């Protein structure tokens, strides 16, 4: 991992509490609502002060500006962004492991809420890393960090210059690339997901790009029994990743 010099704004009670607990040494400063304090806010202020973080009490309008209009619940902090993990570092980390890797790749995500939710899902499913293209994709924004609720510190986010080339490199390492697509007859629940695996999800709307689809070893679909044709990106990722985890643990 390499240290990221970029700073990141985090807001909201749960996200800030998770940041202080998991990455307190990266917190640079904190702002709390001046009026109407709460037990939760006072506890976080005490925790931050114990870490040597400067805590400032400010009016709500200042918090609104710092959170760029987001729902801050009376608290905003600024921290160093989580360390960046390069693809080659990830490959070296996975080499020689006894347990088959489980990775999530997202083909040009655009919605920070979905990226944050995917990081949170990845944490819950025990995913080793989340891979996204560096260009024309949303990165780890304040909104994504809030939705991730601390998962940005537990699940490495690997940003690559070219997703297809990254997937090809992982295939060379023995990983299978499985893409989620509604345009296939292969059922998710009939696929063998116990292999060293990269699960690839398409972006909101367009889904998997053609070159990404062609790079996949297998395409699978989530059976839909109702009237809607597809699931939200992060929901679909949760279904696929937890099915992979179920197979690995219980079959």
How would you describe the overall organization of this protein?
It is a single chain. This protein has a 6-stranded parallel sheet, sandwiched between helices. The protein has a 4-stranded mixed sheet with strand order 1-4-2-3. It has 2 domains: 7-80, Ribosomal protein L30/S12 (60s Ribosomal Protein L30, Chain: A, 2-Layer Sandwich); 87-250, SPOUT methyltransferase, trefoil knot domain (Alpha/beta knot), CATH 3.40.1280. The protein has helices spanning 13-23, 39-50, 60-66, 87-94, 112-124, 142-148, 151-154, 163-172, 210-215, 233-250, and strands at 7-11, 27-33, 54-58, 75-80, 102-107, 129-133, 157-160, 176-180, 197-202, 218-220. With 251 residues, the chain is α/β, with parallel strands linked by helices. It is elongated. The chain contains 10 helices and 10 strands. Helix content is 38%, strand content 21%.
